[in-house]
TrEMBL record:
Keyword Phosphoprotein found: no
Sequence intervals crossing the membrane: 94-116, 122-142, 154-175, 181-201, 208-225, 231-250, 271-290, 302-323, 344-369, 381-399, 406-427, 439-459
Protein name, UniProt field: Membrane protein involved in the export of O-antigen and teichoic acid
Superkingdom to which the source organism belongs: Bacteria
Lineage, highest ranks first: Bacteria, Bacillati, Actinomycetota, Actinomycetes, Streptosporangiales
Keyword Signal: no
Keywords: Membrane, Transmembrane, Transmembrane helix
Length: 466
């Protein structure tokens, strides 16, 4: 039941009004937000007069906000502030995640690309899923004032990920008769992916860069000289740097000594709600990696064409936070939901355009490298365009996930997978690389359009931006 039910049963006291609307109103920080929430529920000036004795919605909202302020209990103190837009830091996240890629030529020189690249695809996909799942649980626990429990979740995810990396790499090495060093590289890559996620969660971008730059520099030196000794030095230095990053990540999760309830008790309610997010992470990783995996050995030009998306992930994260900050500011500036919807739609369109432009610029980098090496092809250009399109969809996905619309994200991502690789399995011509990447571009475009429609329609839910 909403506050505007027309059956005459709507509450007439302020306390009952607050209870009927739900938790959104209790989180309001000013009367304007309360007014926007009430109007989004269908409560107009007439209802405010007839049912609550106030001349208009804004007078009723002011009374409701005063009552909320009187009864609000101080929340538990948290050690970390929930994320907001931080352009200088967040836009570097993609670059920081991509630093180990500089070591791939050296690692390939030691163990061989035929073993290394499939292993990297498998561990990257699993690391993506584990990192996003652990981060979401940690954010939830930090927001509830349980930083120690959040640390335990992150440490458990790190340990599980490294063990899984060892098992996957060992299985691949045995199955394909690969070298034992592949196991160490797989574990190291998984440790970096999860540990770097922890450092970024705690806003330690500078520390991550300082620890990883020596290994990245050694990787660049190997590319220049091409000697086996330089490859071994670069890989060993990379292992040492990742060990330092892992140690720093673990130390961050151990900072609190506050006694907290058992983790199993805290997560009992969270795990059920986490399932859609876990499914979306699996579907997203599958959608992107299955498009690249067939080309990591024999068509490296196609496989690396989408590197701009990795570099631009920080831009997407920053733009998502910037849009949410702008939406919260609009709530304080407007008087009516219709005005908020109109101005927020402009901000949403601007965010999508800026993300696509930024990713397009970054996509030029791998294409320029391919051109300089004589490997540029039509297939690589189409693949780069597809990754730019996927990036625009991921920006919208960030927004919809933060609004709690993860189930819809899963549905739309599943539809994109039905196009690629689903439709490709039924079309013999799709096995040709150019046709395959074009089909992937089509699936990415559908993904972007559907998410744009969902995000635009979601602007009507004004209370979700409070």
């Amino acid at each position: 039941m909403t506050a505007a039910d027309a059956d005459g049963t709507a509450p007439r006291s302020i306390d009952e009004l607050i209870g009927s609307v739900g938790t959104f109103m209790s989180r309001a920080v000013e009367a304007q937000q309360v007014a926007a929430i009430l109007e989004s529920q269908g409560l107009n000036d007439k209802i405010a007069r007839e049912r609550y004795g106030h001349p208009d919605v804004f007078s009723l909202a002011a009374a409701a906000f005063s009552r909320i302020a009187e009864t609000r209990q101080p929340g538990p103190a948290t050690e970390e502030v929930l994320p907001r837009a931080r352009p200088a830091a967040q836009m570097t996240h993609g670059l920081l995640y991509a630093l180990p890629a500089v070591l791939l030529p050296a690692a390939s020189g030691l163990v061989g690309a035929r073993w290394l690249m499939p292993g990297m695809v498998l561990t990257t996909g699993l690391g993506w899923i584990l990192s996003s799942t652990a981060a979401q649980l940690a954010y939830s626990l930090i927001g509830r004032g349980m930083p120690g429990s959040a640390g335990r979740v992150l440490r458990s995810g790190l340990l599980l990920g490294v063990l899984a990396g060892v098992v996957m790499s060992a299985t691949l090495a045995l199955y394909r008769n690969g070298p034992a060093a592949l196991v160490a590289l797989g574990a190291t890559q998984m440790a970096f992916q999860l540990s770097s996620g922890i450092l970024l969660l705690y806003r330690r971008e500078k520390r991550l860069a300082v620890f990883m730059l020596p290994a990245a520099a050694a990787g660049v030196v190997y590319i220049g000289v091409g000697e086996p000794e330089a490859a071994l030095l670069a890989v060993c230095l990379g292992v040492v740097c990742v060990a330092a990053i892992t140690g720093a990540a673990v130390r961050l999760t151990l900072r609190t000594t506050k006694k907290e309830p058992a983790l199993r008790t805290l997560l009992r309610t969270d795990l059920r709600g986490l399932l859609p997010s876990f499914v979306y992470s699996v579907l997203s990783a599958t959608f992107l990696l299955q498009a690249e995996a067939p080309y990591v050995l024999d068509r490296i030009d196609i496989a690396v064409a989408g590197a701009g998306l990795v570099l631009g992930m920080g831009v997407l994260e920053y733009r998502a936070h910037a849009f949410e900050d702008e939406a919260r500011a609009l709530i304080r500036q407007v008087r009516y939901p219709a005005e908020f919807i109109r101005r927020a739609a402009v901000a949403l369109a601007r965010g999508v355009v800026l993300c696509l432009l930024a990713l397009s610029v970054l996509a030029v980098l791998p294409l320029a490298f391919l051109y300089a090496t004589g490997a540029l092809s039509h297939e690589s250009m189409v693949m780069a365009a597809a990754h730019v399109t996927v990036g625009g969809a991921y920006f919208l996905g960030f927004l919809l996930a933060n609004q709690g619309k993860v189930v819809l994200l899963c549905v739309v991502q599943g539809m994109a997978l039905a196009v690629h690789p689903g439709a490709g399995l039924l079309l013999p011509a799709a096995h040709v690389p150019l046709a395959d990447v074009r089909l992937f571009l089509g699936a990415a475009a559908m993904f972007l359009v559907f998410l744009l429609v969902l995000a635009a329609s979601g602007l009507r839910d004004v209370h979700r931006f409070c």
